[in-house]
Design brief:
The protein has helices at 15-28, 50-59, 88-96, 122-151, 156-173, 186-194, 219-227, 237-244, 249-258, 265-276, 301-308, 310-314, 324-329, 333-338, and strands at residues 4-8, 37-39, 42-46, 63-65, 68-73, 100-106, 203-208, 232-235, 279-285, 289-296, 316-322, 343-345, 356-361. It is an alpha/beta fold. Strands 2-3-5-1-6-7-8 form a seven-stranded mixed sheet, sandwiched between helices. The chain has a three-stranded mixed sheet with strand order 4-10-9, sandwiched between helices. Strands 12-11-13 form a three-stranded antiparallel sheet.
Amino acid sequence: MGFNCGIVGLPNVGKSTLFNALLSTQAAEAANYPFCTIEPNVGRVAVPDTRITTLAQIASSAQIIPTQLEFVDIAGIVRGASKGEGLGNQFLAHIREVDAIIYMLRCFEDDDITHVEGRIDPLSDAEIIETELVLADLESLEKRLPALQKKAKGDKEIAAQMEVMEKLLKVAAEGKPLRTYKPVDDSERKIVKNMQCLTSKPVLYVCNVEEASAATGNKFSEMVAKKVDAPVIVISAKIESEVAQLPSEEDKAEFLSALGLKETGLARLIRAGYSLLDLITFFTIGPKEARAWTVAHNAYAPQAAGAIHTDFEKGFIRAETIAYADYVAFKGEQGAKEAGKLRLEGKDYVVQDGDVLHFRFNV
């Protein structure tokens, strides 16, 4: 199961610098973690999680395989992108395929790097991006509605879709992103998701600041944090690029410490993207490998089994389950079992973040 975040922004905001730092960081860790650059603008990165290291030490696992998140570097957007300006069509096509959107905003001043709008105003930049996406959604919905109206007579399912589409059209016509529309029930929520509208996707803001403000932020990033109703991460793409090139973890830690940072901005960004998608992690632990897996929040045990292999879901019998805290407290599976902390859960069990699972199945 793949989950991805698209990075969007105006030209010259540091988007590609950040994306390349992501790839450089993971390329440097390729000996330990599976890494794949699918296309020049797509890469998978490990989700930082100290729990898997702890579990691997307890189980003496030979290999650690973290869960991953995919990032997509999407073509820079300019005014008129919804009408095909710049690389508008490419931009819109790529962004429809992602699960969440990262708005990267320029929050630094530099006379050597021209801003496409001629001034530093991250809130205005965010508004340009949002406006282009809303306009694209409006146009898309207006084109699709007549066809639904023709099919809706006598078909309750299509009639329900048409009703939701009309509600969304009203929101877009007011210039508002479609994520501001709150579905009345799960049925509407599913319809909205299936429409794949650009502004119905969850959003995360990344404020790219100068090096000196990486730890504290600056006046521009503070403006964004006060104004937007979404998570905000402060990063210096320049620092991230420099850290990614350092040869050892000790060198990286020393460099970050000198700047007042405990960890890279990329680590915070990856975790924030993971949280934005409402994902959780479960683990499979053994002598060969300790492995982290991703499922959506509120996933049932068979769905978690399917994240490993479709046969596991089809033939699911039950899941041997140990909570992370119990696995650690009782020093592994055997200790947890002797303490009565290993549970047998069935098809109705909702997987919890950090669960250590072993699936019983029959195919």
